[in-house]
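agent> fetching stored inputs for the AHM docking request
agent> found them:
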Amino acid sequence: MNDLPESQFPETSMVTLQQHIMGQQRYHPTATGEFSWLLSGLTQATKIISAKVRRAGLVDILGATGNENIQGEVVQKLDIFANEILMKCLSYRGNVGILASEENENPIILHDSGAAGRYIVLFDPLDGSSNIDCNMPIGTIFSVLERQNTGFGPRDSMADILQPGLKQRAAGYVIYGSSTILVYTTGQGVHMFTLDPASGAFLLSRENMKIPEDGLIYSVNESNYTRFDSDVQEYLVKIKKSEKPRYNSRYVGALVADFHRTLLKGGIFMYPSTSDAPKGKLRMLYECSPMAFLAEQAGGMATDGKQSILEKIPGALHERSPLFIGSKNQVEEALSFTNKTK
Ligand code: AHM
Ligand code: MG
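agent> prediction call returned; pasting tokens
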């Protein structure tokens, strides 16, 4: 048989997400394929959300619903749409036992006993939703855990959900930006896919991504400056005064977008605690934890200013945490201010 002629296109552009996930199973010899079945539910949902976001100005989906969620935040119509689509696409997968979303006060228990429903999927259906109306990037963040108690009989669902980030089986996000991009990890590196609008497939764009060890972008909502602890204020003054190296500032106001830039270009993103919000703003289980898993898999770091995010044991489904995440050297420098007693 003749060899294929030399290609003009990068090898990676032919690998679909589905193929990549199947390939990752070589690291899990006992894998049955049910995990890739679960992830395909997520990709199906995010393709539908992406299509809706692209048409947002044309259909009646922009703007607020007039309601607030359990966390007192204004709910946008697209928040509700994204939440419903994710719930539907994932609940058809028999191996998903629990779904938990930023938009729902309580987890949805799909299978409460027996062998079905091995996985727990937690998600922020539409992160950065205050960006929707001005056509700025928004995204979906997800984290996958495995139920610990897999025997027959009733299960303690909340105990299964409140696991530290170290136990995540997978994590990732989809960013609906100038293109739709999916980034995921199952603990074997961080990989990025771009949705090809022509074929409807997520195609591999970058494999084994690494956050630069040093990055000169800092990202923070500085309108909170006077409400930050003095150690965070000191750190900010230090980086702003630094001439060599000189830092630049970028802040989108959507964690997915700010994290995505940090993953590609390095630097530090932070959402510290404030006097108004002593535990910070971002949610542990479906914002901080999945991003921390990705950051560490890419050679970066994630901390709450004292402790590694992945080691923290959440006490409640919607618990919040301060977050400092990004390039190893920048996060370590931030820690030298926030964790002086260590
Ligand atoms: P959301 O999930 O309700 O959209 O809120 C989380 C968002 C993050 O994406 C972002 O990092 C942060 O809130 C921005 O908050 P602020 O407007 O206080 O800077
Ligand atoms: Mg969010």
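agent> quick read of the result: The mean pLDDT is 89.
agent> awaiting further instructions
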